[in-house]
């Protein structure tokens, strides 16, 4: 977070969500949150499917259009309760769902679920709060590369494995 006093309230709703104007893809930002020695990554339980573990991420909002890193830091704080130093931008990945449409032109985000475009950043964690905006609905845990790949594969999120594979966790 860029501020010393991060909000204890998570942003909710899709009214301010941004979409790629050419493809209609939902724009999502998140962080690969690494331990200082880059041997572990912080994962969070999915709020929709509590038994599944994913990376902290969420929709980029209108006021973050010029600064995806800020959206990634905000989502990381809201979902995982960690802050730290962003060290790099990772390559963009796209979701792997077969049935989510890629939408050209006008569309209604309330009735159609477009594919997502993921903008991830690598962060080295320096603070872990005891309470955070979504601490009542999510768990978090440190995972090794092998554990994280196992969880993301089990959650059927190959695009998030791709994100991990582009990070230092996979090359350490
Ligand atoms: N979703 C499911 N599978 C997907 C895939 N392979 N690629 C892209 N999106 C996929 O669910 C988050 C959203 O991702 C859901 O709308 C689901 O349909 C879609 P999740 O990744 O299981 O995480 P979550 O349950 O923790 O989700 P939320 O934080 O509630 O939602 P967002 O991650 O969208 O974040 P936001 O609401 O803070 O913007």
Summarize the structure.
With 172 residues, the chain is of the alpha+beta class.
| Low-confidence parts | none
Summarize the amount of helix as a percent range: 10-25%
CATH architecture: Alpha-Beta Complex
**What order do the helices and strands follow?**
EEEEHEEEEHHH
Mean pLDDT, all residues = 91
Return the structural class.
alpha+beta
Whole-angstrom Rg: 15 Å
Instruction: Indicate the CATH class.
Output: Alpha Beta
Overall geometric form: globular
General description of the model:
The chain has 172 residues and is an alpha+beta fold. The protein has one domain: Alpha-Beta Complex (Nucleoside Triphosphate Pyrophosphohydrolase). Helix content is 20%, strand content 27%. The protein is built from 4 helices and 8 strands. The chain has helices at 68-80, 145-154, 158-165, 168-171, and strands at 26-34, 41-45, 53-54, 57-59, 82-89, 93-94, 116-128, 140-143. Strands 1, 4, 5, 6 and 7 form a 5-stranded mixed sheet that branches. It has a 3-stranded antiparallel sheet with strand order 3-2-8. A hairpin with a 7-residue loop joins strand 2 and strand 3 (53-54). Helix 2 runs antiparallel to helix 3 (158-165). The longest helix is centred in the middle third of the chain and has 13 residues, at 68-80. The mean pLDDT is 91. It binds adenosine-5'-pentaphosphate (5FA). Its cofactor is Mg(2+). This is Nudix hydrolase domain-containing protein.
